[in-house]
Design goal:
Bound molecules: fe (ii) ion
Distance between the termini: 44 Å
Strand content: under 5%
Largest sheet: none
CATH class: Mainly Alpha
Helix content: over 70%
Oligomer: single chain
CATH superfamily: Ribonucleotide Reductase, subunit A
Number of helices: 14
Length: 299
């Protein structure tokens, strides 16, 4: 008997994504000029997206210190990106473990795993080129990520994909066309945006099916996991050590950044598409709403 999760349009979607991947994919080893010098005094992300932008602390910082903070913040975000991609590719491998290997749905998942592996190599090279450490999301988030990648099975799997991919995608789409930003970071963002557009279509499509097929209990659980993941991603993109690296008090700077109206507005802007989709998919209700509000992603 054919179930909702095996409808033929699922295969048609996977075939379109496979064709698009064959037409336009990148190898960051050759498609990024790793030898190009970094431009002195140039921001590494749009200035108005740096977490302390507009705060009293920002006003006291020199131009060099602001640029340096943008370098450490983009490296911190990239290291969180690697952490999330390691989670995603394990979730994808588990998603297809029991499915027929000759289906296009499985083939596309394997292509996506390959994309994420190349992205993580690309982010890793960028962090090294920028002379920054791999900050990561912090110990608690790292541990929660271990649970998510090992045990998640329901709609929360593709919802987690979307939280990481949609928010990063919004920032990178803006960054890649901003000529005030370092060319190396713009190129890397451009490559990521093109390949992630396919991942987003796959995840949107699959999440819709999973929610339609899930039991009421599974939906409730998914809403909670999704709220917790959104809070973690929204508040852990910048590691406190990134502030310390530019001579700021890490605790005070983090506190100021999390309360910064400009940063909260940036996060709301970056997650607006995601929030609309989750609301339409019945993922935004229940006790998790409190966490969504605390994260500042919804008001
Ligand atoms: Fe990626
Ligand atoms: Fe992705």
């Amino acid at each position: 008997m054919r179930t909702l999760l095996d409808r033929p349009d699922r295969e048609a979607m996977a075939q379109r994504l496979l064709r698009a991947s064959a037409q336009k994919s990148f190898d960051p080893e050759v498609d990024v000029d790793w030898e190009q010098p970094l431009v002195d005094g140039m921001f590494y992300m749009p200035e108005h997206r740096v977490s302390l932008y507009g705060t009293p602390l920002w006003e006291r910082m020199s131009h060099a210190q602001r640029v340096d903070l943008s370098r450490h913040e983009i490296a911190s975000t990239a290291s969180v990106g690697i952490w999330f991609e390691l989670i995603l590719l394990q979730l994808l491998a588990r998603h297809i473990y029991d499915r027929p290997a000759t289906s296009d749905h499985v083939r596309y998942a394997l292509v996506e795993v390959g994309d994420e592996c190349r992205h993580s190599v690309m982010f890793s090279r960028m962090i090294e080129k920028l002379g920054c450490p791999t900050y990561g999301p912090g110990r608690l988030a790292h541990t929660l990520g271990r649970l998510l990648k090992s045990f998640a099975t329901g709609p929360e799997v593709f919802a987690a994909f979307l939280i990481a991919e949609e928010i990063l995608d919004a920032f990178q789409r803006e960054l890649m066309i901003d000529e005030s930003v370092q060319p190396l970071v713009r190129r890397i963002s451009h490559i990521h945006v093109i390949e992630e557009a396919r991942h987003l279509r796959y995840a949107h499509d699959e999440l819709g099916r999973q929610m339609a097929a899930a039991s009421p209990a599974a939906r409730t659980w998914a809403r909670w996991v999704v709220a917790r993941s959104a809070w973690t991603v929204s508040s852990h993109l910048v590691h406190p050590d990134a502030y310390a690296a530019v001579g700021l008090d890490p605790r005070a700077a983090r506190r100021m950044a999390l309360a910064n109206p400009a940063r909260r507005e940036s996060m709301r802007w970056a997650s607006s598409k995601l929030v609309r989709f989750f609301a339409a998919s019945d993922l935004l209700s229940g006790p998790g709403l409190l966490l969504w509000r605390r994260s500042g992603l919804i008001t």
